[in-house]
Design a protein that fits this description.
Length: 265
């Protein structure tokens, strides 16, 4: 049916925050039947079920069922239907209004669903981000240049013999010692970590250290970033860093590339 107009518009992408309210309106122009009813089909408010379906579907356990969708009746107000919803959950949701005529037939506007991305309320303001590459927080963090031609020549000889030489790296605990500067002095609110996962160190290694974007295990920590002791694992030391950030009132963002991995993953 022509003349079906939704607001937010069909295909529009919207950024909102938890606690916001969003109003959907739907107009049939010109009005052909006053006995018609309008509904909003959406998965807003069904974040837990939506995540469950996605995880189970992609893990091969069950097919994606779409059970998170529901039809919410819209109220006729003068010449338009309206419904207002409270956004109480973080996630990406979709919505589209449709009309049911007096014969029970459904009429949908052409085009894609409206998309609503809902972020945590705490991220509305004060989102200064400090981006940290943990490897660079070692002993050479203040050096103007780390190039050493004589050493590079020796390392190249070892490379040709099939050895793997990985220079010393900054550690998670080195970065943790910089938190007072990052959060107190600079006033940052978010620590954004470039990938901290293990990477290939032999075949298909990119560069001397290996590319941080070729993760071999997205749930593990690169041993090169960990101080050796008999009490903690790499994950433990990562948790130490995260806890220290939280004590500063900050948050940690992880940089993950999930559409490819290192060759041995």
């Amino acid at each position: 049916m022509d003349g079906l107009i939704m607001s937010p518009a069909i295909g529009e992408k919207i950024l909102q925050y938890v606690g916001d309210r969003i109003c959907f309106t739907f107009v049939q122009s010109p009005v052909q039947s006053k006995s018609a009813k309008a509904f909003l089909r959406t998965n807003i408010g069904r974040a837990s079920g939506l995540r469950h379906d996605i995880i189970e579907g992609y893990s091969g356990h069950v097919a994606l069922t779409g059970t998170c969708w529901r039809d919410i009746p819209m109220r006729l107000d003068a010449d338009r239907w309206t419904v207002e919803l409270t956004l109480s959950e973080v996630g990406f949701f979709e919505a589209k209004a449709f009309l049911v005529d007096d014969q029970g037939r459904q009429h949908w506007p052409a085009g894609e669903n409206a998309g609503i991305t809902v972020h945590p309320s705490a991220y509305r303001t004060g989102n200064t981000i400090y981006c940290a590459f943990t490897r660079m927080f070692g002993e050479t963090k203040t050096a103007l240049s780390t190039q050493n031609e004589a050493l590079d020549l020796e390392l190249t000889k070892l490379d040709r013999q099939g050895y793997t030489v990985i220079p010393p790296s900054g550690k998670l605990r080195d970065l943790q010692r910089e938190l007072p500067h990052i959060f107190d002095t600079l006033g940052c609110k978010i620590l954004h970590l470039l990938p901290v996962n293990p990477t290939p160190t032999t075949y298909a290694r990119f560069g001397r250290f290996g590319s941080p974007y070729a993760g071999e295990d997205l749930t593990a920590i690169d041993p090169a970033l960990v101080e050796f002791d008999k009490r903690t694992t790499g994950v433990d030391q990562f948790c130490e860093l995260v806890s220290a950030v939280h004590l500063k009132g900050g948050r940690v963002f992880l940089d993950l590339v999930i559409n490819h991995t290192g060759w041995g993953s």
